[in-house]
Amino acid sequence: MNWEKLLSAKRWGSEDKYNADPAEARSEFQRDYDRLIFSSPFRRLQNKTQVFPLPGSVFVHNRLTHSLEVASVGKSLGRIFYNKLRQDDLNVDEKLPLISEIGNIVSAACLAHDLGNPAFGHSGEAAISHYFTDDAGLKYKKEVTEAQWADLINFEGNANAFRILTHPYAGKGYGSFALTYSTLAAIAKYPCESLAGHDKSKIFTKKYGFFQSEQKGFQRIANELELAQVSDSPLVFKRHPLVYLVEAADDICYNIIDLEDAHRLKILSYHDVERLLLQLCNDPRMPARLADIDDDDAKISLLRAKSINTLIGACSELFYQKQKTILDGDFNKSLIDGIPEPFCSAMKEIADISRRRIYNYSSVVQIEVAGYKVMGGLLEEFVPAYLNNNSHYTRKLVDLIPKQFITSSTDPYQRIQTVLDFVSGMTDLYAVELFRKIKGISFPSIS
């Protein structure tokens, strides 16, 4: 793979209309960022769980604040890499006219990286998968292909994000977001179909990145950018190199920010967090600086900022040093897993403590269990109603699905996707409210 082909301002759904004007104030990739930040799916992230239940009396991060922070870190990672290239070759901009836009591409992709995540975090994904593997949805297996069934029983937020950004929803226009090819490719952590996903031996097949319905679209992008193809059946590509920077920005933010939120909620003590983050600060003056601050939250804010700065530097340097291996598609680990000691060990310890003490905390587990019940309950009502709309009750249920999701197709897979588009796009609060109302637990107010 090479940067000349990998960086493209061609737009999804508007390929024939691309005519970039160099006099414009915004680049094509800055337009991607702006389109995302003003979009409805992005706004809905404010009411989707990151880790801790929402809302609460103590501020914790939601999917929206997380995505904004990831975008900020991602922009720094991309800009530092570009600066390093330019130090080596002052003519790099002439050879690669779009290379200076790497920070903007990564930043836009970071904004979009969680758009496909359903309500209740990863338990929402698991609940959707469970409906088809161990619940009432199992009966639909005979109505879809093997590849389509693999999509349903392993519902993947990454693939759902690509669908949201490229699918021609009714009334939204073919181009939908009309993002650039490079931004779309930079979102795809796992550029393979579901039949190839879940192979942990390769970083690009740990999960999957597109549904069967979007496979041809992803292949078109991959061919345009000349992503390295691994196999045709099942369809597998190697990652676009900028995926590594998007992934690193996400890894940096959630690992560090979850500690900060856990301290605010008194799950971890100040001394717990201080010990973990001091290992990453890479600043011998830090203990003295902390001694001058009285407020524990302010101390942790300083520790968080210095830790993120250290990790940005380490990941950008690794990306630069391993550029050839990454372009060849042979770098088989995340940047966070490849940074030097003592930072790598410190991050592994943070990940271990997060698993044991944060992600297994009672309120976190409760929201996961509740999410299972709510998401499963919605699917058991809406899926059979939409596939077999043959009664007054089911017609009323189908009327609740927004028209943009409705399909004219009679294909069971596409009709199931209609329901998944609707349910996976819900915020936590809306999903709970709708579940309670259609189950008769509560009644809508009449104004």
Q: Mind sketching the topology for me?
A:
Blueprint: H1 3-6, H2 28-37, H3 40-44, H4 63-88, H5 92-95, H6 102-112, H7 122-134, H8 146-153, H9 157-166, H10 181-187, H11 215-225, E1 229-231, E2 236-237, H12 242-264, H13 270-281, H14 286-291, H15 296-321, H16 323-327, H17 335-338, H18 343-358, H19 362-387, H20 392-399, H21 412-424, H22 428-438
Antiparallel strand pairs: 1-2
> How far apart are the first and last residues' alpha carbons, in Å?
59 Å
Please state the second-level CATH architecture of the domain at 245-358.
Orthogonal Bundle
Shape: globular
The CATH topology of the domain at 245-358 comes to putative deoxyguanosinetriphosphate triphosphohydrolase fold
Strand content: under 5%
CATH homolog superfamily of the domain at 245-358: putative deoxyguanosinetriphosphate triphosphohydrolase like domain
Rg, Å, rounded: 22 Å
Description of the structure:
- It is a single chain.
- The chain is an all-alpha fold and 447 residues long.
- The protein has a domain of 114 residues: putative deoxyguanosinetriphosphate triphosphohydrolase fold, CATH 1.10.3410.
- 58% of the residues lie in helices and 1% in strands.
- It contains 22 helices and two strands.
- Strands 1-2 form a two-stranded antiparallel sheet.
- Strand 1 and strand 2 form a beta hairpin.
- The radius of gyration is 22 Å and the shape is globular.
- The termini are far apart.
- The relative contact order is 0.13.
- The model has no long low-confidence stretch (mean pLDDT 92).
- Keywords: Hydrolase.
- This is Deoxyguanosinetriphosphate triphosphohydrolase.
